[in-house]
Design goal:
single chain, 136 residues, alpha+beta, Rossmann fold, 3-stranded antiparallel β-sheet, two-stranded parallel sheet, methyl salicylate esterase activity, methyl indole-3-acetate esterase activity, MES/HNL
Length: 136
């Protein structure tokens, strides 16, 4: 899938921090990649996001620990709803559908015309969608 290719990540930077036996892998989205995620969002929101962005863990270390496995009693007990962002260039529609089919999603909502960041490009529609999910 294109989500895994180096070309897909554009100017995203990854770094390994800490001791080699317990390295923490981090990533930081570059301006080109962030612009791809926010291609339908207002320019001023994208500019603000670029100034506020921080490196994030890929959580590889956390998920590699045996005790970190997700249990049915905890993660499995949460009713999952997936919001498909129709114009998402960060996660393809095919991959979004794959996640829905493979993670026990009980309900699917769609935000037509939304990029990866609906909180920027359509905050009212996102808010309405989340309120509807909460009511159910």
């Amino acid at each position: 899938m294109p989500e895994n290719g180096q070309h897909y990540w554009l100017d995203t930077e990854t770094k390994c921090l800490g001791h080699p036996e317990e390295a923490l892998t981090t990533m930081s989205f570059g301006p080109k990649f962030l612009s791809k995620l926010c291609h339908l969002s207002p320019h001023e929101d994208v500019e603000l996001a670029m100034t506020l962005k921080r490196s994030s863990s890929l959580f590889l270390h956390d998920i590699s620990k045996p005790e970190a496995k997700l249990s049915k009693e905890r993660y499995g007990s949460v009713r999952r709803v997936f919001v498909v962002c129709e114009e998402d260039q960060g996660i393809s529609q095919d991959f979004q559908r794959w996640m829905i089919e493979n993670d026990g999603v009980k309900e699917v909502k769609e935000l037509r015309g939304s990029d990866h960041m609906p909180m920027f490009c359509m905050p009212k529609k996102l808010s309405d969608c989340l309120l509807e999910i909460a009511k159910n």
